[in-house]
Design goal:
The radius of gyration is 21 Å and the shape is elongated. It has seven helices and 19 strands. β6 and β7 form a beta hairpin. About 25% of the residues lie in helices and about 30% in strands. It has helices spanning about 10-20, 55-70, 120-125, 130-135, 150-160, 180-190, 280-300; strands at about 1-5, 25-30, 45, 55, 75, 80-85, 90-95, 95-105, 110, 130, 145, 165-170, 190-195, 200-205, 210-215, 220-225, 230, 235-240, 270. By secondary structure, it is an alpha/beta fold. The protein has two domains: about 1-110 and about 235-300, FAD/NAD(P)-binding domain (3-Layer(bba) Sandwich), CATH 3.50.50.60; about 115-230, 3-Layer(bba) Sandwich (FAD/NAD(P)-binding domain), CATH 3.50.50. It binds flavin-adenine dinucleotide (FAD). Flavin-adenine dinucleotide (FAD) binds next to α1, α5 and α7. Flavin-adenine dinucleotide (FAD) binds near residues 9, 108 and 283.
Length: about 300
Amino acid sequence: MHDLIIIGAGPAGLTAALYAGRFKLDTLIFEKMSAGGQILLSPTIENYPGFPEGVSTFDLMDKFKQQVEDSGLNIKDQEVLGVVPDGKFYQVKTQEGVFKTKALVIASGAQPKKLGVEGEDKLTGRGVSYCGTCDGPLFKDKDIVVVGGGDRAIEDALFLTGYAKSVYLIHRRNEFRAAQILVTKAQENPKIRFVLGSVVEGINGENKVEAVRVKNVKTLQSSEIKCQGVFIFVGIIPNTAFIKNILETDEFGFIITDQAMHASKEGIFACGDCVSKSLYQVVNACGEGAVAVDSAHKYLLKL
Ligand SMILES: Cc1cc2nc3c(=O)[nH]c(=O)nc-3n(C[C@H](O)[C@H](O)[C@H](O)COP(=O)(O)OP(=O)(O)OC[C@H]3O[C@@H](n4cnc5c(N)ncnc54)[C@H](O)[C@@H]3O)c2cc1C
């Protein structure tokens, strides 16, 4: 029987693990891919405090991981498949076994949302991408399209100008959700062309991307932009399917918590991008990871 199991080793789970190590809790951390989480889809982070020049996400997450290991904990490369209540405790099922715990921190994060248009699934990996860092170098001197109006879309559009010949930024509104500092940088970049008030209707191409079909939301006129790549950044969906049957979530599947990160079941806490909230960033994912473990620690003391 363990004190605590942390599910996910992104910024929230790694911070939770750091605090659990310092509280000397008997803790397991499960990660289904590689420690670091979604931020590794972006090459640099510019809004993490303490790094005025920005910092490489690989370097930052490596340091997070190192700090967890220095606190005495190891990350297990296993996917959590389900959680089953067992009296006051919980059984956590992975592909390698069943582990019993007194408390749980869910830090399973989120993944990019799809546009849901014709051609998207067929051409994913053949020009359609959700990760500028991973696929940007494949589009040297090509024309590409970036879809979205938040920080991630603008950051990646800027990053992709380092490779592409031109970047069309398609956004359904005329205003941006992204930070103004990023929007200004994009407006000043000669490689970026804005296609605002427009949505992508479909992605054309037989074996690889050849063009996107775009519709202006006001005039309803459609047009085609010839391109070889389409990078989609239109939001996230939570990785909560494995816990959905036992925890309260919002309509999109994000876990509902109180301010101390308690989820709807005694002994379960949640933090980071899998939680229903207004800001999805590294800095608050970390803060919530610390709060979740502090709450778990208090809960364990009462048990
Ligand atoms: C392209 C891009 C750019 C971004 N830019 C910024 C930025 O500039 N600044 C900023 O602050 N934020 C940025 N973000 C957002 C930031 O990455 C997230 O807010 C942050 O990573 C959330 O951390 P998290 O730990 O909650 O979740 P995640 O980072 O999603 O980590 C969750 C981890 O849980 C693992 N996991 C999921 N399910 C299971 C399971 N069943 N079993 C085991 N493990 C599981 C996943 O593999 C993952 O490693 C960006 C995101 C993207 C995609």
